[in-house]
Amino acid sequence: MHVTSINIPGVLVLEPSLLGDHRGSFAETYHEQRYRDAGITEHFVQDNYSRSIRNTVRGLHFQQPNAQGKLVMALEGTVYDVVLDIRKGSPTFGKWYGIVLSGSTLQQMYIPPGCAHGFCVTSDTACFLYKCTAYYSPKDDRGILWNDPALGITWPVTQPILSRKDQAHRPLAAMEGELPFYTPRT
């Protein structure tokens, strides 16, 4: 497994070894000790799956309190996956990172607690899996407007398919009192 740290503290891109032959392919998508050695020390308690059609945007979601860390991957199809640092006091507060995740590579991204997450489906359909470090809590469910102009996220879609909930999210600047605080890892 190859692990890359990106410009947002705690965010990792992971590339599992993908083995293949004439029958198909195999990959180990999670191994607690190897992921711990890579820097992911949180324990996962819930897995979530979604299937979406092209141009669907889901996000930008987070929980506060009861923040969730997430290990995300596309199982089929491709998505443009985005992490946004919303941790007050973080050196990269308000910064985002985007990456194409594909079922053909099984590349993953780890999103630490306190960051918002969203994705856009860029294939006809996509099946997406994310492991979470905290249980879903409806009362703590929050979101940032997917196309907040102050963030400048370059989504690969002009006419997204959005849920009513995601359409109603507010810009980051309007969320000041609902954001988590940054705690550097030691």
What features would you describe in this structure?
The protein is globular, with a radius of gyration of 16 Å. It is built from two helices and 13 strands, in the order ββββαβββββββββα. It is mainly β. The strands form three sheets. It has a six-stranded antiparallel beta sheet, with no helix packed on it. The two termini are 24 Å apart.
Mean pLDDT, all residues: 96
Rg over CA atoms, rounded to whole Å, is: 16 Å
Chain oligomer state: single chain
Briefly note the structural class of the backbone: mainly beta
State the total count of DSSP E strands.
13
Gap from first CA to last CA: 24 Å
**Strand order, biggest sheet?**
1-2-10-7-12-5
Outline the low-pLDDT stretches. none
- What percentage of amino acids are in beta strands? 35-45%
> What global shape is seen?
globular
- What percent of the residues sit in helical stretches (DSSP H or I)? under 10%
Order of helices and strands: EEEEHEEEEEEEEEH
- Largest beta-sheet characterization: 6 strands, antiparallel
